[in-house]
Amino acid sequence: MYDKGPHIVLRRDGVCIVAKTPDGDMPQIEYWGRDFAFDTAEDALRQLDMRAI
Q1: What's the domain of life for this entry (predicted)?
Q2: Residue 41 lies in domain
Q3: Is 2 contained in some domain?
């Protein structure tokens, strides 16, 4: 469901944004919503894939 490649996780006030960060291009939002308290972007994408949010 989510693209492979480098990602970042941004968190604030219970909201989480997971963004793909391709080289030489603007970041692309992969997930935006509730913060499930994932440790890394890779963990977040793996868990979100399994949840089918």
Answers
A1: Bacteria
A2: 7-51
A3: no
Instruction: Select from 27, 31, 37 the least CA-distant residue to 53.
Output: 31
Question: What domain count does the chain have?
Answer: 1
Q: What is the pLDDT of residue 3?
A: 67
Residue 16 lies in a domain: yes
According to DSSP, the β-strands at 28-34 and 15-20 are antiparallel
pLDDT of residue 51 exceeding 70, the answer is no
Section 14-41 average pLDDT: 83
Is residue 8 a contact partner of residue 21, using CB atoms and an 8 Å limit? yes
Strands 15-20 and 7-12, sheet pairing: antiparallel
19 domain-assigned: yes
**What residue has token string 């219970």?**
14
